[in-house]
Each structure stands twice: as C-alpha cells, then as structure tokens.
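Thread: quick sanity check before group meeting

JM: Hey all, I'm pulling together slides for Thursday and realized we never actually wrote out the predicted structure for the chain we discussed last week. Dropping the sequence here so it's in one place. If anyone has concerns about the input, flag it before I start.
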Amino acid sequence: MNWTRYLRTWEFALVVLLVVEILILGMINPTFLNAENLLYATLDFTHILFAALPLTLVIITAGIDISSVSVMGLASITLGLAWVAGINIFVALAIALLVGIIAGLFNGFFVAKTDVNPLVITLGTLFMFAGIAQGMPALLDLLGFKAYGSAGLAAYQYEGITGLPDSFIGLSEATVWIIPYPFIAVLIFAVILSLLLHKTRFGRYLYLIGVNPKAAVYSGVPVQKTLIWAYVLSGFGAALAGSYLTAYFTSARADLGGDALLPIITAVVLGGADILGGSGTIWGTLLAGLVLGFLRQGLLAIGVTNDLIQVVMGAVLVTAMAVKQLMNVYGEYRLNRKALANKERG
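JM (edit): ok, ran it. Output follows.
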C-alpha cells in the first residue's frame, strides 16, 4: 500500500481524529498531554478493547454477539469461585478463559446450525449466561462443592469475591517502562487477530461470508466451521475482558462489564465494520476504541457529567459515520472518473 492510498483510508482518518481529540483535550487540561497519563488512562477501557477486537470478526460475517457482557461476568465469577475452592489463581484464570471459549462455541453452534438471526440467539444467551453467573455459587453448593476454609459458596452469590492474590492483581497494575501490561496484551491480541484476518484463509472466508453467504457456500467455503470459530474468538475476548476487570477491580463479580455493550459495539462500528457484513479491520476497531476511550476519560477529567458525555460520544459517532460515507462516495466518484477516462482513451 503506497502512502497516497493509505491517506485515503478510514484508519488514517481515525488516527487524525485521535490526535486532534488529544490535542484539544490537552489544551483544556494540560495534564492530559502527558504520555504516562494517557497510557494509564487506557486501563479504564482496556476491557472494551479486549471484547471489541474479536467482535469485529463476527460483525464482518454480518453477525452480532451481544452476549459478550454476560460472558465477562460469567468468566469473572468462575475465576473467583475456582480460586476460593482452592485452585491456583492462574489455573482459575485458564478455567475462566475456557468458559468464555465454551460460551462462544455455544453461540457459534446455534448461529451456524440454524437460520435464527444471531441477534436473537445472542440476546437469549445474554440472559442465560447472566443467570448462570448469578446462580453459579448456589448451584455449586447443591452439587457438593465447598469453598476453601468456609462452609459453602452461596455467600458469594451477591457479593464480590475479594482478597485475590497480589500476583494476579499485579497483572493489571504492572508496566513495561510506562506501558501497562494490559495495553501490551491488547496490542498483542490485535496483532494476532489482524494476522488471522488479513493473512490467512480464515480471514478471507469471513469477508466472503459477510458479502454473500450463499456464494461462499457454492465457492467451497466451510461456512459453519468459520462462523463457529468467529464466535469462539468473541467468547474468548469477552472472557479475557472479564478476567482483566476482575484484576482491575480486585474483585470477582457476576455483574462485571454489564454496562460495556454499547461502547463495545460502537467501537467496532466506528472502526469501519459494516453491520451488514463484508467490511472491517482490527486496527480500525482498535483506533476507534482509543478514540472513544480517551474522549470519555478526557471529558471526565475536565468535569463533564456522564449524561453529557453520552451526548458528545453519540454526536462523534454520527459525525464520523457521515464523514466515512462521504469518503466512500468520493472514492466511488474517483473510480468512475478513472474508468470513464480509460474508456475514452481506449
């Protein structure tokens, strides 16, 4: 890709928007321009990025997964309950991530094997996973599981599980130079997903399914298998987000991440993914997540209320989508002019 072509991409527009946003907020509140403060601020919305990045793959297929916020809580409470049952905290973390994978597999199976709209399926699992997370402590008691050093697990049904080991909590606080571990993990996750999307057959299949699923079937694309894997990755990302929130808040709770759904979907859409399928990039979602995250943190820092922040973020999304549409129209205009000029020369 040459530089001229890159300058016309939506990702470059998001980079410009991010820089302008930081400069404006920095002029209002100079502390916002400090690099260390900016990187530290990412800790407040890292969970949005963990969940939004793999959701991009799902939306590229013209699907949707709104159950991710419930998977966050389910992974969190699973991690906490496993730990109080005497399991090593990092083994408990692996179990929590496995729960996210299983949740994604459940979603993907029903999306791939039925003609039911993914919105309806994941709406159902949104409530189902939330119910399982809330009732899991009492259920484990009925099955005979016991917490280490206590009579049972039901006490944790409505209260968070605290006292988690410092070795686990430290994952959300440690840094490499001034870069927090969680943000490094987000960047690694983004690189892996971007390579999957743009450098593998799996990624090409995702775009083909989003553009025309019937044509994809006739072309020999394993549509069902590809869809299942997309939802598995979405479930894994949600569990990763829930595990991060557990360390960040030093508490495992069944309701963690409950307010994250709209920011997650907004980040994917603002990042350039078409809700009808067929387009989207991982780096677009990452940049959009940073735009939204820094905007919220910057407005909070200058004293703007939450209600007004919602208005501003909605206005930014609408304006950005309008600009993107104008860029698409202009791109088509240039292509038409070039085709007409070639025809005249021919």
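AS: nice. Strands lie at 175-176, 179-180. Residues 306-345 form the longest helix (40 residues).
JM: adding both to the slides.
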